[in-house]
Amino acid sequence: MTTLQTIQRRDTLGTFAQKYNLSVQALAKANNLKDPNLIIAGKSLRIPDGFDDKPFRAGAASTSESKTASRTEARAAAGSGPKPGKGWGGSEGMADAAKKIAKQMGIPVTSQKRNAQQTANVNSTKNSDHYTGNKNAFAVDFGVSGKKGDKLAKAIAKKYGIPARNIGTFNKHTVEIDGKKYALQLLWKVSGHYDHVHLGIRRVS
Ligand SMILES: [Zn+2]
After folding, report:
1. Spatial separation of the C-alpha atoms in residues 43 and 63, rounded to whole Å
2. Ion ligand 1 neighbours, Cβ < 5 Å
3. Are 56 and 136 contained in the same domain?
4. Taking a C-beta distance cutoff of 8 angstroms, is the pair 200, 184 a contact?
5. What is the pTM of this model?
């Protein structure tokens, strides 16, 4: 999710970098600023969420620990839990369970798939699970912060069988449903993810 913030008189890029846990360079790049020291009060600054982009590496989650965890979680997920479905190798359908939870909590979806231009605008890479060019991946962002964000992240983790220790980690969790394996990342309260919960799902086999 990219948000826009209005620049106040005393602001510097450093102010925003600190507030949103980003680097000054990332902010300058996202706003096409030639001189990071020159920002103008009253104008809007684009706050990117570049951290959606840590690539999934297929198979990287296959440690013995996560294999055991996956089996248990796959059973848990098979009942009323997530199911693969339409689009992007089934990963879009997998995301429906999280969207349902968020909807019940009144939390909006703020970003899903992005075309090449939108991907560039949020200072993201084409390897992002948000990028429409990724035919096996789907990502969804829920705009929420604070305690409500904690609650949503926990509820989504529970639904997908993601252990609490894996919230905010990249590529540590896989779920197997109907013989298909999906890598999931649930990002919350990590760099770039304080104002939204990110769920990325990628079919890996
Ligand atoms: Zn995201």
Report:
1. 48
2. 52, 141, 198
3. yes
4. yes
5. 0.67
Q: Are 59 and 42 within one domain?
A: no
At 33, which CATH number? 3.10.350.10
121 CA → ligand 1 middle, Å:
13
Q: For residue 66, what are the domain limits? A: 52-203
**Residues 152, 142 contacting (CB under 8 angstroms):** yes
Q: What is the pLDDT along the chain (205 residues), one digit of tens a residue?
A: 456 778 888 888 888 776 655 567 767 877 788 888 888 888 888 766 544 555 454 444 444 344 444 444 444 444 467 888 889 999 999 999 999 999 999 999 999 999 999 999 888 889 899 999 999 999 999 999 999 999 999 999 999 999 988 898 876 789 988 889 999 999 999 988 999 999 999 999 9
Judgement on whether residues 41 and 116 belong to the same structural domain of the protein: no
Cα 9 to averaged position of ligand 1 atoms, centre (Å): 30
14 CA to centre of ligand 1 in angstroms = 23
Domain count, the chain: 2
The two tokens of residue 196 are 């939204």
CA–CA gap between residue 56 and residue 144 (Å, rounded):
24
